[in-house]
Amino acid sequence: FAELHAAVPGLPLASSRVLPGIVLRRDFAAYCPTDGELRALLVAEPLRPALTAPGVEFVVDSEGQYQASLRWIAKRTEALMKHLQSKNVKLLLSSVKQEDVVIYYAKLYGVSVVECLSSEEMALITEITGVSPYVPFGDSMDREITETAVVTFCQPLPLVSKRCVHVGFASVCAFQPHCLILCGPVDGVNEQHAAALQEAFTMLQQLFKTVDQ
């Protein structure tokens, strides 16, 4: 329930509504508008390539070597974004903050980015789509991308002074997520209404379990 409702103070209760899909309570790090169905990639690691393996020290002896390293990173990052574009991946959903070079090339190749998603949000998206986070680079950055989620829409959603991301997924199970936008004059009222609704849903769950048995 925590991931399927958003409380919005400062609006009358009558402004509350139910929206299809889910609302991620953060803004786009990069937003590239697109029409129609697209693909989303889940990531749980930085997409910027590492210069060395973990535990290996990398020593730069000159400014020239440093600049060459930056060019190598940029080239590898650009190649990955081109690869995503070729697979119709136009949305990155990341549980970690991505570096500026990733955001730059994402914008350049028309890939929207939402970062710093919580573990609960990532788990919910995985449950809806059946897709696990992609492990970038590994032995080879050209490793085939086999798991992408089908996204039916993806757009900004302003909620008073906060900008959120509203996204719809093609579900692989019977669960069709909807998000409750719960409005109220102040946070305290919203919290009371949210708690009452959660208790009501819990009661209904128990009722249906009893009927099924």
Word description of this protein:
The protein has 213 residues and is of the alpha/beta class. The chain has two domains: 1-21 and 177-212, no CATH class; 22-170, GroEL (3-Layer(bba) Sandwich), CATH 3.50.7.10. Helices cover 33% and strands 25% of the residues. The chain has four helices and nine strands. The strands form two sheets. The protein has a six-stranded mixed beta sheet, with helices on both faces. The longest helix has 26 residues, at 187-212. It is elongated and about 65 Å long. The two termini are 24 Å apart. The mean pLDDT is 85.
H and E string: EEEEHEHEHEEEH
> How many separate helices?
4
Overall structural domain count: 2
Strand content: 15-25%
CATH topology of the largest domain: GroEL
Radius of gyration (CA) equals: 21 Å
The helicity comes to 25-40%
List the helices and strands and how they pair.
Layout: E1 5-9, E2 17-20, E3 22-24, E4 38-43, H1 63-86, E5 89-94, H2 100-108, E6 112-114, H3 119-129, E7 149-159, E8 162-169, E9 178-184, H4 187-212
Helix pairs in contact: 1-2
Describe, in short, the structure shown.
The chain has 213 residues and is of the alpha/beta class. The chain has four helices and nine strands.
